[in-house]
């Protein structure tokens, strides 16, 4: 049996690890296609400065959802061996580069185990330009011109790059992709960052920690920084069961209203504040005041984020899948930006650093961006809230849009759609079967893992490594069963259920 994995980042590592740990069956040959020379880290976890930290706690960054402490334990073992003398294995938030090394090691171990079991692993330094069906198999056409037939193909395309909304790529002074964060910038040059999300925060923190002396400016549409991570409250099994039952049994058209009612009841029962929730989700509060307020609530048991988010996490995937398509589209259009600030919070230490920079004037946060233009004499003019801000260096941290059709991942998805092997999902990626992650269409051996499946698996879950690991195991289970026949048509997919209206 032959398996192709398109992409060599964290999603591919979880798939390889799950494959190596699965019950051996038919001998398998795996081809991993990745244009980067180093497999495993992908864009987010490549070699970088130690100041570039992961924004998730180390205890939730494992490639094995059944063993969330795998990365932490690997760090401890590496610490005992003296491999990383400057690292603190017990630190809650670890450098990205260390996680990248962990991914490389887990990938190498998985490949070695498959080879020992009689299989083979091929690392192909190339992009995949096309996938098509031939004689009941899936054929990959690589950028090297080599075509190979496979029984199964898994799309592990990673996170889309930041969107170049204003068409500035190639302009002097414009950095289209901020990673790696260790890339040098003129020390005395003011820096403007397009965006105020986690990527923008990463840029600001990296600059501040390396002693950047000139002002740093974050400019976005809403000016919302990510929330400050707080300690989650304990989950009451009875409440969790009630919510899970509601998500499973409530008719889709009334699901949003029912879940909101249950969550409001839990918030009130735990002394949480609806006013605090409204403040966190709304734009307009000054960035310094917002950070100071949230830093004062990181250990508060009645903080709404501590009360509600742990309860939502186990049912998030099913809730999203059961929402009618119109509600999903409305949610993404009206609420996704503010919800993303809560679902992707920053570490308290990061928030404290930003707050100090805001108070001293080293950092500014602006909202209301409407235009960015290249200036005739060099540099850029950024218009926000009716004011013009001149920028010599402009770093792009704009929210990623669907895969750019010019990029390899976008080109491939476009060709799959043109061949009828996949259908673009209006909420991102392609339509997939919720249970197996199989791409819905005539090819039963085609799967999507991570962000290519975000339309049917809400991106907060699709992008969570533990969530990706659980999904990888489902794909591996189906592959190991040798399921290479049968189709599921788009017309019968429950993901196409349409109806209802999303209330604000």
Description:
The protein has 504 residues and is of the alpha/beta class. The protein has 3 domains: 2-160 and 401-483, FAD/NAD(P)-binding domain (3-Layer(bba) Sandwich); 174-226 and 347-396, 3-Layer(bba) Sandwich (FAD/NAD(P)-binding domain), CATH 3.50.50; 237-343, no CATH class. The protein is 36% helix and 14% strand.
What's this model, at a glance?
The chain is α/β, with parallel strands linked by helices. The protein has helices spanning 10-21, 70-81, 96-116, 198-209, 237-249, 252-269, 274-281, 287-295, 304-312, 316-322, 325-334, 336-343, 348-360, 408-418, 459-462, 465-480, and strands at 2-6, 29-33, 120-124, 128-134, 137-142, 147-150, 152-155, 174-175, 191-194, 216-219, 363-366, 369-374, 380-384, 387-391, 393-396, 446-448. Helix content is 36%, strand content 14%.
Topology:
Layout: E1 2-6, H1 10-21, E2 29-33, H2 70-81, H3 96-116, E3 120-124, E4 128-134, E5 137-142, E6 147-150, E7 152-155, E8 174-175, E9 191-194, H4 198-209, E10 216-219, H5 237-249, H6 252-269, H7 274-281, H8 287-295, H9 304-312, H10 316-322, H11 325-334, H12 336-343, H13 348-360, E11 363-366, E12 369-374, E13 380-384, E14 387-391, E15 393-396, H14 408-418, E16 446-448, H15 459-462, H16 465-480
Helix pairs in contact: 1-3, 1-16, 4-13, 5-6, 8-13
Give the biggest sheet.
Answer: 5 strands, parallel
Distance between the termini: 50 Å
The share of residues in helices is 25-40%
What is the number of helical segments per DSSP (H or I, 4+ residues)? 16
Architecture (CATH level 2) name of the largest domain: 3-Layer(bba) Sandwich
Low-confidence stretches: 483-504
| Whole-number tally of structural domains | 3
What would the CATH topology of the largest domain be? FAD/NAD(P)-binding domain
Beta-strand share of residues: 5-15%
- Count of beta strands: 16
Shape: globular
Task: Assign the CATH class of the largest domain.
Answer: Alpha Beta
Assign the structural class, choosing from mainly alpha, mainly beta, alpha/beta, alpha+beta, or little secondary structure: alpha/beta
Mind telling me the C-alpha Rg?
23 Å
**Strand order, largest beta sheet:** 3-2-1-7-16
Query: Would you tell me the overall average pLDDT?
Result: 88
In CATH, what is the homologous superfamily of the largest domain? FAD/NAD(P)-binding domain
């Amino acid at each position: 049996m032959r398996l192709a994995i398109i992409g060599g980042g964290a999603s591919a590592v979880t798939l390889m690890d799950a494959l190596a740990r699965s019950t051996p069956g038919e001998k398998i040959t795996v081809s991993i296609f990745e244009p980067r020379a180093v497999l495993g880290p992908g864009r987010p976890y490549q070699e970088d400065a130690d100041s570039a930290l992961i924004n998730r706690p180390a205890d939730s960054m494992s490639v094995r959802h059944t063993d969330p402490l795998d990365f932490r334990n690997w760090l401890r073992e590496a610490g005992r061996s003296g491999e990383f003398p400057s690292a603190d294995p017990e630190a809650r938030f670890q450098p990205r580069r260390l996680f990248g090394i962990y991914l490389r090691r887990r990938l190498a171990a998985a490949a070695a185990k498959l080879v020992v079991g009689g299989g083979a692993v091929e690392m192909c330094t190339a992009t995949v330009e096309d996938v098509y069906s031939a004689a009941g198999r899936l054929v990959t056409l690589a950028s090297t011109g080599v075509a190979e037939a496979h029984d199964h193909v898994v799309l592990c395309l990673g996170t889309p790059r930041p969107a170049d909304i204003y068409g500035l790529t190639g302009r002097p002074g414009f950095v289209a992709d901020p990673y790696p964060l260790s890339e040098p910038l003129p020390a005395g040059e003011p820096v403007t960052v397009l965006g105020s999300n986690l990527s923008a925060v990463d840029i600001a923190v990296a600059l501040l920690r390396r002693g950047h002396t000139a002002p740093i400016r974050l400019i976005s549409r809403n000016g919302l920084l990510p929330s400050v991570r707080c300690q989650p409250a304990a989950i009451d099994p009875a409440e969790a069961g009630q919510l899970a039952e509601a998500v499973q049994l409530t008719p889709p058209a009334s699901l949003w209203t029912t879940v909101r009612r249950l969550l409001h009841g839990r918030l009130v029962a735990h002394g949480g504040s609806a006013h605090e929730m409204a403040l966190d989700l709304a734009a307009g509060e000054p960035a310094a005041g917002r950070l100071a307020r949230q830093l004062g609530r990181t250990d508060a048991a009645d903080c709404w984020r501590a009360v509600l988010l742990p309860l939502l996490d186990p049912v998030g995937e099913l809730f999203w899948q059961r929402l009618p398509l119109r509600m999903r589209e409305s949610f993404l259009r009206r609420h996704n930006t503010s919800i993303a600030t809560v679902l992707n919070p920053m570490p308290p230490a990061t928030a404290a650093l930003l707050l100090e920079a805001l108070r001293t004037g080293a950092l500014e946060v602006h909202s209301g961006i409407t235009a960015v233009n290249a200036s005739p004499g060099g540099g850029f003019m950024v218009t926000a809230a009716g004011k013009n801000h001149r920028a010599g260096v402009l770093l792009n941290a704009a929210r990623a849009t669907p895969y750019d059709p010019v990029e390899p991942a976008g080109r491939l998805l476009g060709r799959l759609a043109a061949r009828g092997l996949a259908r673009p999902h209006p909420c991102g990626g392609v339509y997939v079967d919720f249970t197996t992650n199989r791409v819905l269409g005539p090819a039963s051996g085609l799967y999507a893992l991570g962000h290519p499946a975000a339309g049917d698996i809400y991106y907060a879950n699709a992008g969570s490594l533990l969530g990706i690991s659980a999904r990888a195991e489902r794909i591996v289970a189906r592959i190991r069963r040798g399921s290479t026949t049968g189709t599921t048509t788009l017309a019968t997919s429950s993901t196409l259920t349409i109806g209802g209206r999303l209330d604000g």
